[in-house]
Write a structure and sequence with these properties.
mainly beta, globular, two-stranded antiparallel sheet, Porin, about 450 residues, 3 helices
């Protein structure tokens, strides 16, 4: 048994009795749950920078992720949770070079619910206060372009040790939600991964907003990251952003959903100054068609690039904690840095199947900054990169929920390479194909 599991189990044993100090009400017995996820993938080319005999190579792999959790409601307002995970690639010795990707502690935390109901904390004057302390998955904030739980990866989402406070203030007519997260990040990527938060990096996040105003809701957030990230050393970064979304009264343009988000980065990267920005605008409309429930959308996002590498500013958006797979194409060809994405989305339900078709028109924000692949912190540039068109990706995927104990997902992605791909790679302009088939078997009570 690995030392990390022993440490996590010890922390769980220590936290559970300590939480009883705050316990109110009756306890319930422990519950066991988990899931097994199996996914086979094929990509050709696997990426546009790995070649065999002058041609991009294809690759296939089968991933297996197993999670088991023990949760225990000690009282009405106290809960503890302990979860281990085994993550491996079939045919790869996970005890050798891939040691960080085998069995380890995913989560071990205490949840303190409704603390405002305790007499000793009534001075808070809040409507709701929940506190999570320990090791827990990174949550998704907003649309997940800034901070997201990456559930696609075989070892994700990113785990962190720290505290998350979820609270609400106000009256029945106007309620404000406030979240505070402080995290000592742990990099769960295997050692061969190109980038990730270095162990011991600190991240905190403060967000506040309301959806009790007619026509528009919104929130503002302030975040900071300090520590190394991949090839980026001495990163001390702050993010300030605002997010607005439609909150239309009932019977007013039913089915319309509009989101606008803008964020700025500042701080230091070594001796360089950070000055970058991100913007998103997205609209979806759900048609009132019984059984089919069609939803159509259009949007545009842009994460800034650096057009002048000779000055003292870093204008490339640094994106260590987002989830590219959910937003920038399932092929996972680009990171959310120096990238613009005009996208179309569609969804329809046919019986037990949810069918999706997304289209991404991907281009570089600054040609000279280069192409940031997933997990990279340095843009790939060609000798003479004069075109900003990376290409167009079509993602067709479907989910099939067979009940509480079985779920299937399958998808095909087609990438039509643009002129910038050929210039940056030195001649590769092959179109790409990505296929996957995934099965998930949950059991017991899962989290």
């Amino acid at each position: 048994m690995r030392r990390g599991i022993l440490v996590g189990l010890l922390a769980f044993i220590v936290m559970a009795p300590s939480a009883l100090v705050f316990a109110q009400g009756d306890a319930s017995g422990p519950t066991v749950g988990g899931d097994v996820r199996l996914r086979t993938e094929y990509k050709r080319p696997y990426d546009y920078f790995t070649a065999d005999g002058g041609e991009p190579t294809g690759d296939d792999a089968t991933f297996m992720r197993t999670r088991m959790s023990l949760s225990w409601e000690l009282a009405n307002n106290i809960g503890v949770m302990f979860q281990i995970q085994d993550s491996r690639t079939w045919g790869v010795d996970s005890v050798g070079d891939n040691a960080d990707a085998d069995v380890d502690v995913r989560q071990a935390y205490v949840t303190l619910n409704n603390l405002q109901e305790m007499d000793s904390l009534s001075f808070l004057g809040t409507n709701d206060v929940d506190v999570h302390v320990g090791r827990i998955n990174l949550p998704t904030i907003g649309d997940g372009y800034i901070v997201a739980a990456n559930g696609w990866g075989n070892t994700g989402p990113l785990s962190w040790d720290g505290m998350w406070i979820d609270s609400s203030f106000g009256s029945e007519d106007l309620m404000f939600d406030v979240d505070f997260l402080w995290a000592d990040l742990q990099n769960n990527n295997p050692p061969t991964a190109p980038a990730g938060p270095a162990e011991g990096s600190v991240f905190w996040f403060l967000q506040g907003g309301t959806d009790d105003v007619d026509f528009v809701g919104g929130d503002v957030y302030l975040a900071a990251y300090k520590g190394d990230f991949g090839a980026l050393t001495d990163l001390d970064m702050q993010i300030f952003g605002v997010r607005l979304y439609s909150n239309l009264p009932e019977d007013t343009l039913d089915g319309l959903d509009v989101v606008f988000e803008y964020a700025m980065q500042s701080g230091d990267l070594g001796v360089l100054d950070i000055d970058s920005n991100f913007m998103l605008i997205r609209g979806t409309y759900a048609l009132a068609v019984e059984d089919l429930n069609p939803v159509f959308g259009i949007g545009y996002s842009v994460a800034s690039g650096d057009g002048n590498s000779a000055d003292n500013d870093v204008e490339t958006w640094i994106s260590p904690l987002d989830w590219n797979h959910a937003h920038l194409g399932h092929y996972d060809l680009v990171d959310n840095s120096n990238i613009a994405d005009l996208f179309l989305t569609s969804q329809v339900t046919v019986g037990a199947f949810d069918l999706h078709l997304d289209v991404h028109f991907l281009s570089l924000d600054e040609e000279s900054d280069g192409w940031y692949t997933v997990g990279s912190t340095t843009g790939n540039t060609g000798a003479t990169t004069t075109d900003d068109e990376l290409g167009t990706e079509f993602d067709f995927y479907s989910t099939w929920d067979c009940g509480e104990s079985l779920n299937f997902q399958a998808g095909v992605s087609l990438f039509q390479a643009g002129d910038a791909v050929k210039e940056i790679t030195g001649g590769f302009d092959d179109d790409g194909t990505f296929f996957y088939l995934q099965m998930t078997v949950p059991f017991g009570q899962t989290k």
